Please model this.
Amino acid sequence: MQICKVESNRESGSSMTPEQFLEFARVLPEPLLLVSGEGQLLATNQPVADILGLRRQELRGKMLFELVTESSNDIVKYLQACSSSRAMVIGSLTLRMNDGQTLICRSQGAVIQPWSPESSALILLRLENRVLASSNFVLLNEKIDELAKEVQRRKQAEEALKKANQELEIRVEERTTALQDTLNELQLTQTQLIQAEKMSSLGQMVAGIAHEINNPVSFIYGNLHHAHKYTQDLLKLVEIYQQAFPNTLPEIQRQVEEIDLDFLIQDITKLFQSMKVGTERIQEIVKSLRNFSRLDEAELKQVNIHEGIDSTLMILEHRLQARHEYPEIKVIKKYSKLPNVTCYPGQLNQVFMNILANAIDALEASALNSQYSKVNTQKTESQKLINNNPQIQIKTELLDEKWIAISIADNGLGINEQVRSKLFDPFFTTKSVGKGTGLGLYISYQIIVEKHNGQLNCFSVPEKGAKFVIKIPIQSVS
Ligand SMILES: Nc1ncnc2c1ncn2[C@@H]1O[C@H](COP(=O)(O)OP(=O)(O)O)[C@@H](O)[C@H]1O
Ligand SMILES: [Mg+2]
Model:
């Protein structure tokens, strides 16, 4: 150990005789011993004798271990360490004093003549009183080495601990991120479930209402025919009476005039006709409601896509008509001849609903925009263009023997690139709170792409409108 091996200036080959040693040791106040590599005392100075309480002559020829409590083994080991080191080797010796007491000394050992085949090594020991040293003989260098190793080990352990700590932190961070992701996913799933639940209860309600309306309407429709016929019969009877008794009682004559019998006869047929048209319309609406909810068709089914689109339009009819500040939205259908498509009809209708509702929202927004620009004289070209004639164009097409396409285009505000990149993200909405949930297109994408192995794309020229194109396989789901 650096701190304990004090480099001496001696040449490794230099030597000193016991006589020369005594010569200079005599004048030095500290206890000095010259010992052989085996531990035999070759010379000592007076301070050594003083410490031990002996005379110097008594020390001559003695072995070092006879003067100390440490074992000869330990002593030899220490001396070997001294003779094999170029540095000063520090050790501890417990001297046995003449009065029976012991004294712990620190020793500094240095070889002054190395071992050779001809002669033993000569080692100079310098003693220093050390009260606190251990009572066992120790090679402090070894101890220090051990301590250094221990320090090293601890450092390594600390390093390892630090590294483990860092790894742990990283893992904790990873776990936290994973947990956050899971939480987000769960929240999304929960919202989807709620949405699906809402759609399903809406569907149930719609189907329920449709069913409830259907029955009474059927009575009316069924009886309308008979009612018409009975009235015709009664009118016929009146006619016959009139022919048989042209000059009836004045009382009857007055009544005939009062009820304007001729007009009544003419009008009642029209009336029945319009009642018939009305009930037929109710029946159609009921059919559309049932078609839209398609509760009975949660399973894959072969359906006519156009019926789905039409029933969805029927549900949205009230939003297409002119209202307050909004002009009527024209729906232009360009249907091609399509085969029946194997799909989940209820879900597909939900997609039509989401896309059509968005188109209506965009057209309404553009209508408000145009009102604003009417006040604002600096109307831009595009604003003029947008708002003249709000319309939705629905086109269906057979792409090849396996695929069909449905495109729904509006001439509303359109979608800029920034919005377009987030369109299908869950919860992305540009609408005000309460109006937009940001789930419509996300759910539509899931239904088309995941449920039907199809594609859903959006094309838009900002300020001129947006077009959503659904492509689905005719035999869409495996
Ligand atoms: N036809 C469209 N024209 C303009 N913007 C649209 C159209 N369809 C969708 N968007 C934009 O996409 C966003 C997301 O739509 P959607 O997922 O249905 O959620 P929401 O309708 O609840 O906002 C809308 O907020 C709107 O900004
Ligand atoms: Mg929407």
